[in-house]
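ASSEMBLY PREDICTION REQUEST
Request ID: AP-0331
Submitted by: J.K., bench scientist
Number of chains: two
Total residues: 927
Priority: normal
Notes: Please return the full assembly, not individual chains.
Input sequences:
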Amino acid sequence: MAVAAPAVPPVMKSAPTRLRRRQWLTVLGEAVRTPRGAVGLALTGFVVLVAVIGPFVAPHSPTAFVAPDFSKPSSQFLLGTDTLGRDVVSRVLDGGWVLLVMALAATVFGIVVGAIAGVSAAYLRGRWDGLIMRTVDIVLAFPQLVFALLLVSILGPKLWLIVLAVGFSHAPAVARVLRSATLEISERDFVKAVELQGMKPWRVMAKEIIPNLISPIMVEAGLRLTYSIVIMAGLSYLGFGQPPPAANWGLMVGENQTGLVANPWAVVVPAALIALLTIGTNTFTDAVARVAIGVDRRPEEAALLDDIGIRAA
Amino acid sequence: MSDARGAPIGVMEPAEPPAGSPVRLEVRDLEIRLANGGADVVSDVSFSVPAGHVLGLVGESGSGKTTVALALLGHARRGLELSHGAVLLDGTDLLSLGKHDLQELRGGSVAYVPQDPSAALNPTLRIGSQLKEALKAHEGDDEPGKRITEVLSESHLDSSPEMLRRYPHQLSGGQQQRVAIAMAFCCRPSVIVLDEPTTGLDVTTQRHVLDTVRTLCRSYGVAAVYVSHDLAVVGGLATEVAVMYAGRVIELGTTARVFGFPVHPYSRGLLAAVPSPERAEALVGIEGQPPRPGRRPPGCSFAPRCAFVTDPCRSINPEPEIVSGRLVRCLRAAEITDRERLRPLLLDHRTSSEVPPAPVLSLNGVSARYGSTPVLFDVDIDVSPETCLAVVGESGSGKTTLARCIVGLHENWTGEMTFEEARLAQGARRRPKAILRRVQYVFQNPYTSLNPRKTIGQIVAQPLEHFFNLSFAERSARVKKILEDVSLGEDFVRRYPDQLSGGERQRVAIARALVVEPDLLVCDEVTSALDVSVQAIIVELLRRLQRERQLSMIFITHNLALVRSIAQDAVVLSAGRVVEAGPVEEILERPKEQYTIRLMEDVPKLAEVEPTPA
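STATUS: Completed
Returned structure:
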């Protein structure tokens, strides 16, 4: 024999590789580096900055009557005053953070409820699937805003109730998306491998399935955040949000629309901030979605890389 | 071609093309790079194929063989560019043609048969209309109907009007592939490129398809390029072989010379890794992986994995030279030819005990169904302790269902399964934890059986956490030990599955199954997703581990040749029934049932070719 095969092949050494960061960080990082992601993040960042540092830099109290109704902008009141003679700049700076916190809380609540419903429906199958998904269908039959309005008008305009109502109205859509993603993943062999050990279903879902749903969850979260902001602002505009003396962008648009001609800034600025925020979150989510889809899919590239011997590192 | 036992029935004699036939396809210094000036993926590829000849393009995955095959149609996949060289088709350089001219040529003068016929045929068009379209696109044939009937009967397909009215999904896989071949031949091309067209087919169907390709090429004077990782198939079909490694052709010559007496160490390794259905031999794989584009070492690309490597190999890039009547890229080719041929180590599987010991696992009248479709009928199987039982069958024979019933993944079965005197319940959920630990399963596809979000350490430690109550230190020690046993280093612990090659992944899957010290290991087609060189390594690994750990094993495979190298007993399944069972030598050398005899005949074999000295 020209070449003798060693009885035990030598232990293979792998090339030193850098430790990988967590996947969601990688995806976010890649998304920020795309033009779309950078623009989205910049817009969102700007509005969030206004909302967060605003209360600390506001020149006047947001509830103090400082000048006649709908005064034109002046050097003292840069954007003039509103329907009750309060400083618009101060109210704009003060009126963002409650909206942001509520939208964020509603999104988190909606994603958690929706993920639990969708993942368990897909993984448990059978009776549970039917029960959960029919419930989802019923909730989905109500338009989101109408659903929130209904709850609020029955139980009164409490902030936590609005958060729960908006969050809950997100859950069905989230559940549907994650159900279909879970259906595909739970068929993969690595899930079968732990099932063969007799692992409990909830552990299989928590340990094996959910870590593989990071990309769809991130995309859903971004999308639902955008909707949350719009619905929250809409509810305030309709008078179902924070009660009146408080400054709130949605509420400001509603209160001041009668003075649109006298001092348009009192309406335009809060409306523009809401628009910038939703455009920003939506654009950024879009960038994340594109990166995430690329990370998970790439059949053509995968075949190419396979043939020429490059593996995704 | 000759064989000690006389030509085995079914070995395909390579077509003998007429001597001095004109060259139809010539590739000169082809180079393909990653787009935007990246590294070269394929370089210095030159070969020519005369009319009536079949060139086999072989190599491991990652060698660039499919990339070259597509370049023969003037096509580069996204991310790649044809940066240099010429592809001459009857004297016309394809690479200098414009988009429109290329379109004219493709399907006309140069045709392509892809791996998956169901992807090549339009599912919404009838067979007749598809063929008519292919004809219409290229020549204003006066009698398309006549040509279609002709080409269908040449492809050994029924050319009746009923056949033409069928949709692709109404045909079997083999029929679909023959329609794809008929489509490729219908415009009388000069060159035809076949990209692993028999990969998904049964051995019998594969043999018929290969026969079709050979006769068509010979009778039409077509130059064919046949891309495949299956050396036995290429050996039976091709007149010349080009062995590719890391984007270069490292050995090029007639099939008889290259396969009969390989010179390049890589070709030698590849051929040694091919299992033989005629002998029980130890398989020798090639350790390591081919270098990626851009990471290729200076000097010979194969040097890091080569058994004959010397210092100059690491710095000098070998130019092709003629050694023993073929082109070889190896500095030591001349010395190596003098060496004795690589002879496989023969194995002796026979067990000494006269009285058969009580079986570890026995199946009694097991029948299984999917929904209302029955797939297994009254299967009886015994697995003796510390032996390996091979379950052999074509696709659709129910072999995977059988494996899934045994491990508890498939619950819809009746009958009796006894594992060491304990009756096995239908599903895994209903079996006690101790049983679940003692019966372990290795999945077919290592690309889906490992959770991509977990490190190798987490994956291997997970069953330990589940079945044992161990301290962290003890768990880590066991993980480390088992990874060593499957020849993976300690530093794999922190890596993720997508940083591993297919072979490495399959080792991790084996480690995960063995870490809990099972008594019975069920391996379901564990090498079918791997290259031959890697398959050999995995089979040898399993054989070693089975011996060391006194494991009982069930090895499921469609590859009859592989059975010889690993199993002592075998069971042949066909359409859900056990056709034949017994010791491996009995079944493979003296098959009694008609089905087994036919299966053995149809297996493509790398029949021994007498060395042709220079």
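REVIEWER COMMENTS: Chain A has one domain: 23-296.
SIGN-OFF: pending second reviewer
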